[in-house]
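Morning!

As promised:
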Amino acid sequence: MGTCRQGPLTDIRILDLTRVLSGPYTAMMLADLGAEVIKLEQPKIGDDSRHFGPFSNEESAYFMSVNRNKKSITLNLKSPEGKELFKTLAGQVDVILENFRPGTMEKLGLDYKTISQINPKIIYASISGFGQTGPYSRRAAYDGIVQAMGGIMGITGEKGGKPVKIGSSIGDIIAGMFCATGILAAYIHLKKTGEGQYIDVAMLDSQVAILENAISRYTVTGKVPGPTGNTHTSIFPFETFPTKTEDIMIAAGNDVLWCKLCDALGCPELAEDERFCSNPKRGFNHDEMFALLCLRLAEKPAEEWAAILDKAGVPCSLINTIDKVLENEQIQSRDMIVEVDHPIVGKNVIAGIPIKMSLTPGSIYKAAPSLGADNSNVYQELAGLSVRQLDDLKKSGII
Amino acid sequence: MGTCRQGPLTDIRILDLTRVLSGPYTAMMLADLGAEVIKLEQPKIGDDSRHFGPFSNEESAYFMSVNRNKKSITLNLKSPEGKELFKTLAGQVDVILENFRPGTMEKLGLDYKTISQINPKIIYASISGFGQTGPYSRRAAYDGIVQAMGGIMGITGEKGGKPVKIGSSIGDIIAGMFCATGILAAYIHLKKTGEGQYIDVAMLDSQVAILENAISRYTVTGKVPGPTGNTHTSIFPFETFPTKTEDIMIAAGNDVLWCKLCDALGCPELAEDERFCSNPKRGFNHDEMFALLCLRLAEKPAEEWAAILDKAGVPCSLINTIDKVLENEQIQSRDMIVEVDHPIVGKNVIAGIPIKMSLTPGSIYKAAPSLGADNSNVYQELAGLSVRQLDDLKKSGII
């Protein structure tokens, strides 16, 4: 755990109105790299995800996992005083980030058009299910909906089986990641020209952007791609195999690796076998190849084979459950599992920062904030409010 | 299709040595937003993915889908003249991007340490399977390996069933996306201080960073998360249902939507039913709820239900196959499916740009380049080579 806000983005101040996952993920990425993120939440209730289980000492583990390194303030955006205070804050930040349903910020009178008149340099980024434009723009979306509509489910699942949803909410996360890139690109333009702008990222668009070769496979061949199970569409062998114990993933991406694999499995005769001597041949005779490899792999437990193949330089992996991920020596050595001290919860385990920078590394220096934890210092510093004024706002439920 | 390179990043020049997917995805994201990307490929062979099928007029559809908006030059980095030429180019660019196995650039004498002595302002970004450090750093990785090792497979699949690989190569793509954010963050620091730096992004780290609540669910409850099928772990109903035809995804994220769903399905009595009146109760009595909803949903085809639920404001979607994704009116209206004119192939269909910026929008203005298409102009402009020198380099196989 780090000790202070640090990284390449320490000059950037973000007012973050987002809830649950997509926007909070964006803000987390930027906060990890040093941005000052002021998370603005509804008084008393806060981000919906504060109420998602499981809980640790009544704090949501979900909320804690995606809101480290942030400040929290409360503000009722429906009250006239709340709106005024929001506008004051908007004049003091570089970025506003929101993920309400399109139209909500307009209804509140706090949309980009209004705010950019107060602060023309503002970068105002919105994440929504379907985007700010188009026939579906006003519909609500959830992760599962965009995974289904955007095509990724249709290509995930057992071969010939039913479509399967990805086990983490990548409908939200991918959109959050694109938005982070968009904000930094806009900031580069801002620093060059002094101009702010509006950024519109849709969860559905973002799903389409990660379909990889599925689009080209379809448009070139006319065949509609379906679930492909745990195989690769054009590299053989590149799939999961049963062993004496659990399955193992093996990827022999070229002829050299194929020979190494055959040697390591103790069946060098397969490396010489004409049926399997090139990748196209291994694809053509896939089922025979698979069956022969299975025969050998059935003889030892997966862990033993993994050690043998690692030593032989053949890419492979057990299919880790989360407990194994947390124990993995490589993942640990890369600081990708971090223990954070939370004032209420104590030790809290979250994922680390995947962007490793040599000169300006980011840091995880602070657990997720309790609701409104930073009201005093933020409102005093950025809006010049007195302790008395803060008390009054609190009493009237505005903060 | 746009007409010229435009966007917030037009001042950034990137020398891109990456192959296949992770790095090419990073470079594509930045090129889409205006960066000048010079893709450096091995003479005669080029990026491995140029040889991945399916092909359209002998051009790889795979390669075309991820290399739009880029220039291509060829250079043999193993020859002394190639190394010298590389160093000349390195002095003329802002970013070097590579995704060789760790150690390769050192072996070539073209690692960060060497290049930063020539150009201290350089941002040098590496994407690798396991990262530049740690016990696995020198191992080769493929998408399937990091999906298995990083935990996402272990939480994806039918409930109680076997782990399933995600149908697109998110092991590569997620790493590419983090790297794009890292490069822009480093560029912001560069513009402020004049300092370059090294960025190390690992595919495995990147997988850990998108596990979402799986880590906290495990560390708080001690239960190892497994595949959850097409359901949500804490919202009910939020899953796929069979209909008279194909399955439909329905997400009723709160009590209001639950009532709307019951009304729209013509079973308002369920909205009144005590067993289902709150989300926790719907979770507790999930199987009964599911069975009752299935009874109604079995009466009409999925498309008909989708229209009814859309009208009622209940989030839902058919599980689109890729052909349906391409036809979707929302996706089309957002320019997320783009036809590009390729000089050899003609019309080529690829995914659009998911980051929509109001003032400095990116553009897709150019199909993927043929191998070495930009040798003349790049080497003349950035290395001052004459036509004669270029001819000689070509004859000797250096470019």
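Chain B touches chain A through 148 residues (CB under 8 Å).

Hope this helps with the figure draft.
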